[in-house]
Amino acid sequence: MRVYLGLVAKQPGAGIPEAMLHTVRDAIDSAFPVPPEVIRSREWHRPGITMFAWTNEPDDSRRPPLLETGHDRVTGVNGYLAAPDDVNRLAAMPALDTEAVGGCFSAFRATEDELSAATAIHRVCPVYYAETPDVHVIGSRALLVHLAGGGERVEWDVLALQSMVRQGYFLSDETPYRGVSALPPSSSVTVKGGRRTVTTTPLPSAVPAPTSRREKKELVGELASALLATVEPLRAAGEPVNLALTGGRDSRLIAATLHAAGIPLRATTNGLDTHPDVIIAGRVARALRVEHTVIPPARAEKKDAIVVEHPLARAYETLRACEGMTSAYESIVGYLPYSAKPTMSGQSGEILRAGGLLLLQTDLTEKALRRRVDVTFLRDPALFTEEANEHARELAGPWRERAPLEALDHMYIAYKVGRWHAGARAGSLRRGDQIWPFLDNRVVRAALGLDQTWRLSEEVIYELLGVLAPSLRDIPVEGKPWRFSVGRRYYPWQRRPQVLTAPKTGGGGWNWRTSPGEELTGLIRDHVLGRLDLLAPIVRPDEVRKLFAEPVLKKPNQAWHLYTVATMLGGEYPGKEPQGLPRVHIPIPS
């Protein structure tokens, strides 16, 4: 994981105050969610401009380097480039622009008279910016950008947190920190001559769905080429890629991409030998002639309860890793020492299927799609104050004016990927920088250019398999059949796509976060109700009390969101990690 922060004085000829430099150096321990002893740093100083960089990478072997320096400039890449030498392209650009560069990254650059940063098309590697009376601040961690201002304590943007309580992530460019904004997707922020400029390139509009086999082949071929380019950095890994392989669509497509690129891989699947994930993954591995390891679930004596960490310990670690951008309802990958071992999964493959917001829809009429836009921004309006609801309506306004199919597609990229996933993946980035083919800048751009209904049909992924590894198309998928195959007429000589489904079991879907039991419910209730005065600007106290009226939570995800925000506003974060908290017993339903 890499962290960047740039400072530039507003007044020409003015320097960066020495006290601010010391504040930044002291603040990194709070803003970088790894043990302080593993952090390495570099600095670049010119009159009136400074660039800081930190990493928990154990050495300088990863390319590009933490800071790529030239005679009059310095460039840093947060994330990875498909071609590491592209850092020189970014350094040489007259205006920082990520559109033609492959990888999953954001870029930071300082010259003798300019500070700039840019996001890729999905901003999953985020950029944040703020200003003080004397200095502009740009960085990759929002808390660090906020603390660089030198305030004695964190100032929260309480109204912005209404989105966190509704959805568990931000549906805007706001952050929890007053005065700190997230840079939009496919954007750059530049400070020169004391003035800040933000430039945004609109996300691509989709072309109509192809009407001929030739046109379909051409569009799929372009996307396949973009996918193949994403895995090029893995040629230098020196060992096979470990792929988490399931019976679904997305990890299979990653396996096909690696196979077509000639990148060695081995597959790992978690589950019992009788589960469709294991059966199908085994068939995929045999078709590609790669090693396949099955990790069965741990067997134990029958128990009537599980023991989990105290919710405050969980919330603190989530806030520390995700900076208040992700709810403690989510399970965030914990810290482990940085490893360069290449690992991959099919995560974020929904982008090639028109995004999670559209995948939730069965009714694709304009009225139903517009209702989805509204519900996304204005969930549970009765719980919120009128001020909070009005703020949500203002955020929804620009999206309501757009064609709803494209709006939901782009909302998924801008918010679900660019805000929720950007926050949540900070936990895993501490362990190493994985290659994410479905989050590659050029792959996402190519995918967004394809008709949403065509992507939603899943035919795009099916056709990609035919280009990259044809033998995988006829292996069944787990769960539900390919969407394009439902109701489709097949001639006798055509092969119908197959599906395998796991048998339903009584307790198979139980999750302690959504079935918290009375003890955990009580802890969450007491924590939230004890801070109702802090939450009152965005939620109605009487409605919150109704939420906790039952012995066991009826809306546990909403309660976790409230708990997360209450922890921020209550002052438990940032600060020292809570100690001595008892663990919690949660009964397992029979």
Automatic annotation (TrEMBL):
Residues 223-457 form the Asparagine synthetase domain. It comes from Streptosporangium vulgare. This is Asparagine synthase-related protein. It holds the Pfam family Asn_synthase. It comes from the Bacteria. InterPro entries: Asn_synthase, Ntn_hydrolases_N, Rossmann-like_a/b/a_fold. Coiled coil: none annotated.
